Amino acid sequence: MTSSPAGDAAEPLVRLRGVTKSYPGSSPGVRRGGTGPAVVTAVDDVDLDVAAGEIQAIVGYSGAGKSTLVRLVNALEPATSGSVVVDGVELTGLPERRLRQVRLGIGMIFQQFNLLESRSVWGNLAYPLQIAGVGKAEQQRRISELLHFVGLPDKAHTYPRHLSGGQKQRVGIARALATSPKLLLADEATSALDPDTTQEVLELLKRVNRELGTTIIAITHEMDVVRTIADRVAVMEKGRIIESGPVYDVFSAPREAVTRRFVGTVVDDEPDEVALEELRTRHTGRFVKLAFRDGGVRQSEVFAVLHRHGVAFELVYGGIEEIQGATFGNLTLALDGQDALVDAALAEVRAVVPTKELR
Ligand SMILES: Nc1ncnc2c1ncn2[C@@H]1O[C@H](COP(=O)(O)OP(=O)(O)OP(=O)(O)O)[C@@H](O)[C@H]1O
């Protein structure tokens, strides 16, 4: 025996090393020998480990390479170079017959659900089971179990056109889980849904992860999705992963400009110049941003310091968020008082919480 149970546990379910995917350049100029790029590098030298049992989000703007990355992981396309290992199997160079086996161990859900319109819900769920050669009795049992799991036990004989978007995605999830895959790939799974339905579907995905132990890779451009379900997030730009880590870390201290823009869609950082100018028309005094982090100083302690120095304050921008059970937030305060008093108060505040004066 060369591998210990502990060694197996440490092995990621998905492991990408130096993965690049290029396509021939498609602009007419290129084909005629013009000056456009000879190749489009959709995924560029990507390393990524996804541990078994985790929810990994991949975010990026349109064209960043997210969907291409997913097609490499689910063995729909070969990488141009690098290593793609899924559940211990190196996909690079694998014959089509083996690739088909690998795909059976991976579930997929899509933005547009991709249900078979000519089949009832039951028929849609039976489809992957038939392909996998599951017998009729076992199909019955499994489909009934799946419908209960996704909360649609009474929709077995309904056709997709009579379902709401949220119900369709529940069927999509049930279908993806039919063959009990270890890995579920969700490509913009909630982007076509309204906010309430999005939350319901995200709750279901969390249950899939917690109750069934399914590892999930969720491609999205919505940071709300990342905040709600993911353990870790990787940010893609121009085919590369430019930043990655636990969701709390990336949200509370984003390093790259693209990441800051994404995080800024759900978490206020500090007012930009325009917002600051507008705030100054309504509030007097000096503006400071305080960065509260989990386990650090509490807001009430900071407010007590200001009070003790006789500095009046007003909360003018920002908020406190909860991510993965931990709180953090950025609050901008307008401080009113004599300069010397404000300086003394700020010196004390700075000692306990990162503080930045906005001028
Ligand atoms: N089959 C292909 N042939 C040529 N170029 C491709 C192909 N697939 C993707 N690309 C290019 O690769 C780049 C990354 O595309 P990809 O679809 O992976 O990005 P994305 O982040 O998923 O964006 P979106 O959210 O819009 O799908 C783009 O420039 C795209 O035009």
Automatic annotation (TrEMBL):
The keyword Coiled coil does not apply. InterPro entries: AAA+_ATPase (IPR003593), ABC_transporter-like_ATP-bd (IPR003439), ABC_transporter-like_CS (IPR017871), ACT-like_dom_sf (IPR045865), MetN_ABC (IPR041701), MetN_ABC_transporter-like (IPR050086), NIL_domain (IPR018449), P-loop_NTPase (IPR027417). Signal peptide: none annotated. Residues 14-263 form the ABC transporter domain. The keyword Transmembrane does not apply. Pfam families: ABC_tran, NIL. GO terms for molecular function: ATP binding. Keywords: Amino-acid transport, ATP-binding, Cell membrane, Membrane, Nucleotide-binding, Translocase, Transport. SUPFAM superfamilies: ACT-like, P-loop containing nucleoside triphosphate hydrolases. Transmembrane segments: none annotated. This is Methionine ABC transporter ATP-binding protein. It comes from Nocardioides eburneus.
